[in-house]
Amino acid sequence: MSKQYDLIIRNGILVCPEGTKKADIAVYDEKIAEIGPELAGDAKETIDAKGHYVFPGLTDGHVHFNDPGRTEWETITTGSSALAAGGGVAYFDMPLNCSPCTLDAKNLKAKLAVAEKDSLVDYGFWGGLTPKNLDNLEELAECGVIGFKAFSCHSGIDEFERMDDYTALVGMAKLAKLGLPLMVHCENAEITKDLTALALANNQTTVRDYFAARPPITEIENVSRMISFAEETGCKLIIAHISTAKGVELVTEARRRGVDVCCETIGHYLILTDDDVERLGTVAKCSPPIRSQENQTKMWGKLFNGEIAFVSSDHSPCDPQLKNGEFLKVWGGISACQTTLSGLITHAHHQRQLPLENIAKLTSQNVNEIFKIPGKGKLAVGFDADFALVDLKDEFILQAEDLFYKHQVSPYVGDRFQGRVKQTILRGTTVFKDGQIVSKPIGKHLKPNI
Ligand SMILES: NC(=O)N[C@H]1NC(=O)NC1=O
Ligand SMILES: [Zn+2]
Ligand SMILES: [Zn+2]
After folding, report:
1. With a 6 A CB cut-off, is 96 part of the ligand 1 pocket?
2. Does the beta carbon of 335 sit less than 6 angstroms from any atom of ligand 1?
3. Hey, which bits of 157-236 come out as E strands?
4. From the annotation, which residues make up the binding site for Zn(2+)?
5. CATH dotted code for 58-370
6. Is residue 313 in contact with ligand 1, taking CB distance under 6 Å?
7. Whose CA is closest to atom 5 on ligand 1?
8. What are the tens digits of pLDDT across the range 357-396?
9. Which of 152, 305, 324, 450 is most buried (most C-beta within 10 Å)?
């Protein structure tokens, strides 16, 4: 008797860990049941993926969906829809800019309730680490957070206080015991604060003044400081959205001597330069700021060498009115969770020949492995049937109307992409197809296997 599957995707080119290959993929009970050429068997649903590449579906390790509490900026509904439209099947939501911030079990449970109801794709949560919640780390761990996030400098949200050195040392020692990683936004607090105050006092508020107030050394200094604490405590450390090649170098050196540290970067540090930010204006303001062309070239080298563990979106939207005003004063944060995969296919694969399997690792497999999410992140038998079907040749100019964000803004509107996501499948169910969200919210809570 022939096998009966839920779904067979035929004739696609699969982006597997070992490389691309033409094969069929069969799904049973939300998981990949078989991979092979011209699979026998029947299925309730068959997709002809001829001419399409099948990626494992992104897990975005770093988003701010602001739900609950700041839903005028973004919601779990809009954010998770945008992610799905960009080939995403899962995300890890940050402990800020929702309100209240995720600093204890009660507030985490409030967020969980929203996600259970509204999330189109799977989700994990970051807990926050601030001077105020050192006693709440265990209860957050018990609720299944995938890790903790802290800021070395002012976070932009007053109630999410920066991590002073005492909190870093004590907090990392606690997290080492819990077996959960700490991700740090690394910018030196004193230098950024004083340079910003000086610029404001002198009425220097342009884009270039902003760059000058957050120079590369603020990141570089703080990366090495955090590495020292990680080395001392044994805590697993992840440098958030690294923007400088020198910072990556420090991470690589520390790893070589056995420190458990790695780094994440964001599409915009690879795709945009300081000159682009000057041209685009506040829509492209983020912190740390987007750096020079020279730095970017070195960052690509680091990405190609495997020195960067994963690429996320740091999707950090706001009410667009908060972007109106002098550059130095407006909200820092870029809306980006819909464009990571198409952006990397365009800039890393087509322009720079990074193999597609490396893109799959940077956006999916590595993230799930680092955070110990079982059964997710690659095209292999037994793994979740998560797929992004991509037409690698399809060229398009990104239009604001294409965006599923609550506010249809992006620094990439008007830019040319090559590689369009046609369909996104989460655990065997199509959630996005041909420009439309086609599923109810079916996301599940992802917890680390620690
Ligand atoms: N609070 C917040 O989202 N901050 C983010 N925005 C940004 O540009 N960098 C960040 O860390
Ligand atoms: Zn940050
Ligand atoms: Zn962030």
Report:
1. yes
2. no
3. 182-185
4. 62, 64, 149, 185, 241, 314
5. 3.20.20.140
6. no
7. 333
8. 999 999 999 999 999 999 999 999 999 999 999 999 999 9
9. 152
Amino acid code (one letter) for 357:
E
Ligand 1 atom at minimum distance from 155 CA: 1
Question: What is the structure's pLDDT at 1?
Answer: 61
Contact 70, 34 (CB under 8 A): no
Q: What tokens were used for 68?
A: 């609950």
Below-50 pLDDT ranges, the chain = none
CB–CB of 194/215 below 8 Å? no
Give me the residue spans of the domains in the chain. Answer: 58-370
What's the pTM value of the predicted model, to 2 decimals?
0.98
76/117 Cα distance (integer angstroms):
9
How many angstroms is it from 241 CA to the middle of ligand 2?
Answer: 7
Q: What is the pLDDT of residues 174-220, one digit of tens each?
A: 999 999 999 999 999 999 999 999 999 999 999 999 999 999 999 99
Whether 128 lines ligand 1, by a CB cut-off of 6 Å, is no
- How many residues belong to the chain? 450
Q: Which atom of ligand 1 is nearest to the CA of 160?
A: 1
Burial of 170 (0-12, 13-18, 19+ CB in 10 A): middle
Tell me, in angstroms, the distance from the centre of ligand 3 to residue 122's CA.
Answer: 19
